[in-house]
């Protein structure tokens, strides 16, 4: 609005005439809106989120509102509601009702205070019981692991359930697809779930879908985004689980996707980069827990209830339930209490002697960082295994920003040499408790990705995992605090600057 004196010939002394400048009006309105947004953000954004995450979002909104506000509205909400959230709640109640009479620990398992604490925590947060099972071995060789899964599918008699984050049809996985096709020809029901955004960027995506359909495989994309069919999801929410169940009596789970170890990238092939993964093969009652997770995710995508899974869950196979106490721990947006994060932290606080951690993407929140450094300060030997160079630029630098504090506390950091990517996710504590699965130790896996981890209360399983870790150790080099302090200033700047991106969720 502009006010200027204007002489009026017909009015002695003139008068003030009020005129409107459209440009000034628009500027004023935008300024008012901007400050209103910032004021509202200050009292809204920090709600129900970690302080670091709230501060990072506020910085982005306050300094770059044009970018920060739309991004926050798209992916920034800490609340995840909707159909999948409701279905997960219903599944939890069904599992809880089915297992209500089950004891906290199987009768044949010696009860200890630490075991009871962990199992009670997981059961309270996920409804999953602690049951018996057998480890049929660890598969640490990439191609041999796929071959073992393929062989199990070839022996299937009733059904095959495969749920995977990344599924691709390539020379390495071709035998797996052939085994599924042969199973269908034998009358076996084959169901496949894969993450939409996780898989679609790899070569042969459409040919793979055509092949699955042609072979008679029942398949769905998890968390699909298809605007033409009015299917929209928050693009930052993904299903990162990896599991295979055969006839309800044999299962595989871990960190490995079903794709060539080069991830079909020309650059990876040029620099000879391959992924290093680990799967565990299981039998016994624990297989039913994996089938329950698959059934929930299958229903979420297809709207169908797999009747053969329900039958297996009810009848079971009591003669082969197993001798090891296992507990499956699912997590993700359907579990707002972040069960995987709480399990990681609880395990570390219970440690008395040693902790081994293998995580490809290690970007902990404040609580987990405090647990790890506290363990080191109180004399527990803590060994952390990471890739020398992560395959993602921002994660690589954000992860490195934690190394100084870790080294200072006494944590020993072992780097798996580039160009390979150490993609295994496991934890062992005091040589008697093991944890393996799909979850990274980062804030994405804690809050935004659907994950599964397997808790094993068994020294033999822990010893098997430690033997794998020892193989990694032989290839790794160890970081030294004094040497780490002398790294180039540009690297230090990037590490600290990109640490902020880890909290923006």
From TrEMBL:
<dbReference type="InterPro" id="IPR025202">
    <property type="entry name" value="PLD-like_dom"/>
</dbReference>
<dbReference type="GO" id="GO:0008808">
    <property type="term" value="F:cardiolipin synthase activity"/>
</dbReference>
<dbReference type="Pfam" id="PF13396">
    <property type="entry name" value="PLDc_N"/>
</dbReference>
<keyword id="KW-0808">Transferase</keyword>
<keyword id="KW-0677">Repeat</keyword>
<keyword id="KW-0472">Membrane</keyword>
<dbReference type="InterPro" id="IPR022924">
    <property type="entry name" value="Cardiolipin_synthase"/>
</dbReference>
<feature type="transmembrane region" description="Helical">
    <location>
        <begin position="25"/>
        <end position="45"/>
    </location>
</feature>
<keyword id="KW-1003">Cell membrane</keyword>
<feature type="domain" description="PLD phosphodiesterase">
    <location>
        <begin position="235"/>
        <end position="262"/>
    </location>
</feature>
<dbReference type="GO" id="GO:0005886">
    <property type="term" value="C:plasma membrane"/>
</dbReference>
<keyword id="KW-0594">Phospholipid biosynthesis</keyword>
<dbReference type="InterPro" id="IPR001736">
    <property type="entry name" value="PLipase_D/transphosphatidylase"/>
</dbReference>
<dbReference type="GO" id="GO:0032049">
    <property type="term" value="P:cardiolipin biosynthetic process"/>
</dbReference>
<protein>
    <recommendedName>
        <fullName>Cardiolipin synthase</fullName>
        <ecNumber>2.7.8.-</ecNumber>
    </recommendedName>
</protein>
<keyword id="KW-1208">Phospholipid metabolism</keyword>
<keyword id="KW-0443">Lipid metabolism</keyword>
<feature type="domain" description="PLD phosphodiesterase">
    <location>
        <begin position="418"/>
        <end position="445"/>
    </location>
</feature>
<dbReference type="InterPro" id="IPR027379">
    <property type="entry name" value="CLS_N"/>
</dbReference>
<keyword id="KW-1133">Transmembrane helix</keyword>
<keyword id="KW-0812">Transmembrane</keyword>
<feature type="transmembrane region" description="Helical">
    <location>
        <begin position="57"/>
        <end position="80"/>
    </location>
</feature>
<keyword id="KW-0444">Lipid biosynthesis</keyword>
<dbReference type="Pfam" id="PF13091">
    <property type="entry name" value="PLDc_2"/>
</dbReference>
């Amino acid at each position: 609005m502009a006010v200027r004196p204007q002489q009026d010939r017909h009015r002695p002394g003139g008068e003030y005439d009020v005129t409107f400048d459209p440009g000034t009006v628009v500027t004023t309105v935008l300024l008012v809106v901007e400050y209103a947004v910032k004021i509202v953000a200050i009292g809204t954004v920090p709600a129900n989120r970690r302080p670091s995450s709230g501060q990072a979002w506020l910085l982005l909104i306050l300094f770059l509102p044009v970018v920060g506000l739309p991004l926050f509205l798209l992916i920034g909400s800490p609340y995840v509601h909707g159909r999948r959230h409701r279905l997960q709640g219903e599944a939890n109640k069904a599992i809880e009702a089915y297992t209500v009479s089950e004891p906290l620990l199987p009768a044949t398992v010696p009860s200890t205070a630490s075991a009871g604490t962990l199992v009670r925590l997981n059961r309270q947060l996920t409804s999953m019981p602690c049951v018996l099972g057998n480890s049929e071995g660890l598969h640490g060789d990439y191609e041999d692991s796929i071959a073992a899964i393929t062989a199990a599918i070839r022996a299937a008699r009733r059904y095959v359930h495969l749920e995977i984050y990344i599924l691709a049809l390539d020379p390495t996985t071709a035998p797996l697809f052939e085994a599924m096709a042969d199973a269908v020809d034998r009358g076996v029901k084959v169901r496949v779930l894969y993450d939409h955004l996780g898989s679609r960027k790899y070569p042969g995506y459409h040919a793979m879908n055509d092949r699955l359909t042609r072979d008679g495989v029942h398949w769905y994309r998890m968390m699909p985004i298809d605007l033409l069919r009015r299917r929209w999801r928050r693009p930052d929410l993904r299903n990162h689980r990896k599991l295979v169940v055969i006839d309800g009596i044999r299962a595989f789970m871990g960190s490995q996707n079903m794709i060539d170890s080069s991830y079909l990238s020309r650059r990876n092939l040029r620099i000879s980069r391959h992924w290093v993964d680990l799967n565990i093969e299981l039998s016994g009652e624990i297989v039913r827990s994996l089938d329950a997770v698959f059934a929930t995710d299958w229903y979420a995508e297809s709207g169908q209830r797999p009747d053969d899974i329900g039958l297996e869950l009810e009848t079971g196979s009591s003669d082969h339930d197993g001798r090891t106490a296992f507990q499956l721990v699912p997590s993700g947006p359907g579990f707002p209490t972040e069960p995987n994060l709480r399990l990681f932290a609880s395990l570390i606080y219970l440690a008395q002697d040693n902790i081994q951690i293998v995580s490809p993407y290690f970007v902990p929140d404040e609580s987990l960082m405090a647990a790890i450094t506290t363990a080191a300060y109180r004399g527990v030997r803590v060994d952390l295994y990471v890739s020398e160079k992560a395959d993602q630029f921002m994660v690589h630098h954000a992860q490195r920003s934690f190394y100084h504090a870790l080294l200072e506390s006494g944590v020993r950091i072992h780097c798996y040499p580039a160009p390979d990517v150490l993609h295994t996710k496991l934890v062992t504590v005091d040589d008697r408790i093991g944890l393996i699965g799909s979850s990274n130790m980062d804030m994405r896996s804690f809050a935004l990705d659907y994950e599964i981890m397997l808790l094993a209360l068994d020294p033999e399983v822990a010893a098997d995992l430690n033997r794998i870790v020892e193989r990694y150790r032989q290839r790794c080099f160890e970081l030294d605090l004094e040497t780490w302090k002398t790294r180039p200033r540009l690297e230090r700047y990037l590490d600290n600057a990109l640490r902020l991106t880890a909290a923006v969720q």
